Amino acid sequence: MATATLDAPDVAGRPTPPPRRRAGARTTLTAGSSLGLGIAVTWFSLLVLIPLTAIVATSAERGWSGYVDTITNDQTMAAIQLTVGQAALVTGVNIVMGTLIAWVLVRDRFFGKRILDVVIDIPFALPTIVAGLVLLGLYGNNSPIGLDWAYTDRAVMLALAFVTLPFIVRTVQPVLEELDHDVEEAAASLGASRLTIFRRIILPSLVPAITAGAALSFARAIAEYGSLVLLSGNKPFSTEVVSVRVLSFIENGSTASAAAVASLMLAVALVVIVVLDVIQRRVSRRG
């Protein structure tokens, strides 16, 4: 007959009960937290998930052949190439210039620093159509600086650079302010050069902020409309961007075609965000 075995007795001489098996991970949500989560998910679904699902569903109304025909249309492809190319170029410029501006605002002292810190946010507050009017006055036919770039592909880059500049500045600036200077001073005392300190200490801390700002900058650029209406001229095969092309489809009653182009740009944005996230993780791991 099998006999049951008892665990070793404790200090008081009583047998210690066997350890209980965990029944699995339990949620830590309280009743109030569960309510908050439900509200948040519902709100997010109403604002983001359901509209995006509707766009994808609408884009499939004409079938796969209709989707491909819309995307591969010469005028549509020209608008996509211009928009994605200029958005990528502007994002690259913003990574360099935005990080540099954030560095100057945090690490340097100079006259007018607070004014510059406020001016950086103007593209956030300024209506985009007004931004286009300002840029047209500066780079139009009667340019006070002699640069007549209106209605060219350079006008597209100018408009996108104007509306996206603050993203990287405002994501990098708080991280720079929180960096511990003692670590940099310790590395310098051990003989590390400024380049080594920046590459091995500062940059790994900034990469998450830079990639987050770059993702926001790119996503904002491929969706820009207002500042380009006046400045670019919206000429097909030349300065017409995707947002204008989508509007032309809607005005012509082709909602499925507009949704097809919109769904493609959504996919492009998601791919860019994933790639930037992978780069951020690898650089941070090396750091």
From TrEMBL:
Q: Where are the transmembrane segments?
A: 35-58, 78-106, 118-139, 151-169, 201-223, 256-279
Q: Where is this region: Disordered?
A: 1-24
Q: Which UniProt keywords apply?
A: Membrane, Sulfate transport, Transmembrane, Transmembrane helix, Transport
**Mind telling me which GO cellular component terms the entry cites?**
plasma membrane
MF terms (GO), sorted A to Z: ABC-type sulfate transporter activity
Where is the protein found, in the record's own terms? Membrane
Q: Domain ABC transmembrane type-1 spans what residues? A: 80-276
Job of this protein = Part of the ABC transporter complex CysAWTP (TC 3.A.1.6.1) involved in sulfate/thiosulfate import. Probably responsible for the translocation of the substrate across the membrane.
Sorted alphabetically, which PANTHER family does this protein's record hold? SULFATE TRANSPORT SYSTEM PERMEASE PROTEIN, SULFATE TRANSPORT SYSTEM PERMEASE PROTEIN CYST
Protein name as it appears in the record? Sulfate transport system permease protein CysT
